[in-house]
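**Discrete fold encoding**
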Amino acid sequence: MRKLVIATKNEKKKKELIKLLKGLNIKILNLSDLKMHLPHVVEDGRTFRQNAVKKALTFSRYIKELILADDSGLVVEALDGKPGVRSSRFAHTKAKDEENNAKLLKLMKDVPLKKRGATFVSVVAIAKEGNLIGTRRGECKGTIGFEPEGKNGFGYDPLFIPKGKSRTFAQFSSSFKNRISHRAKAVKKAKSIIKKCL
């Protein structure tokens, strides 16, 4: 069976991506599964695409299997696009989800509901043997809540209310989130690339 390596050690992201890639006749691994020494990739790109491509290309030079790298984050209108590409390290370099959420809420404490618009963005890059095969982007628009709600998901899910809904991502089941999320949209588009490589 062909293999696909997800360029992450984040177990929650791995689980989500495995569900999103369901239906493909491949074995899905992540970096932790490989038990090999790999370089640390500094995500210093100015865009989600630059970071996703950098991760995919870097790991594809060390790993023979097809590589899928995702870079995603939250773009908040009232904060001029922040946290953006620094979403996972918004509070500090090794910030936990709760710390990032707390910083976001603190910065937005005086922002009224009508100005709390935000977009979750995900870019997926596919690479093999040092060559970029393609990228796909997905977005999910919504608003930032006034306090964390829900226990599901990860990252900013407890604060993000998708457009047209009254609950946060963290209050929905993973199966529902995986139908409308930014990452779901990007991965759905990327499936056609993966199938061509199998």
In short: The chain has five helices and six strands. The two ends are 10 Å apart (CA to CA). The beta strands are 3-6, 27-30, 66-76, 117-128, 131-144, 160-162. The domain at 3-197 is CATH 3.90.950.10 (Maf protein).
